[in-house]
Amino acid sequence: MYRLKNTEQYILQEPDENKRYWIAEMNLYLGMWQGTRENRPGKWLRWWDEQGNLLPWGSELAQQERERAEQERERAEQERQRAERLAAQLRAAGIEPED
Q: 22-74: per-residue pLDDT in tens?
């Protein structure tokens, strides 16, 4: 990758040990990532933050949000079932639980 050194000269920038290029103005690394995007495998340009975390594409963010929502639904259902079991145990012991 070439980087503008001054208004008239570009210099060849060497990648880091992960073969990524630091772009200080953006506080991001740019590099190649191999994987699948929209059902198309290949090598893609991707961004990483300062700590080396891959930044997700919008479609990846939406998928992560759907997965988190599903996990939360499952957790809430498990908690509801647990509360029902505890209420049944209280009733079996002759105690009427409060709602």
A: 999 999 999 999 999 888 999 999 999 999 999 999 888 888 899 999 999 99
| Amino acid identity at 4 | L
Answer for the pair 13, 21: CB distance below 8 angstroms, yes or no: yes
Give every strand in the sheet of 40-48, ordered side by side.
Answer: 20-23, 28-37, 40-48
CA distance 63 to 82: 29
Please give the span between the terminal C-alpha atoms of the chain, in angstroms, as a whole number.
Answer: 65
Q: Could you identify the residue written with the tokens 């000269």?
A: 9
Distance CA(46)–CA(67), nearest Å, equals 22
CB 47, CB 55: distance < 8 Å: yes
Short-list 86, 87, 85, 83, CA closest to 75: 83
Global pTM value: 0.63
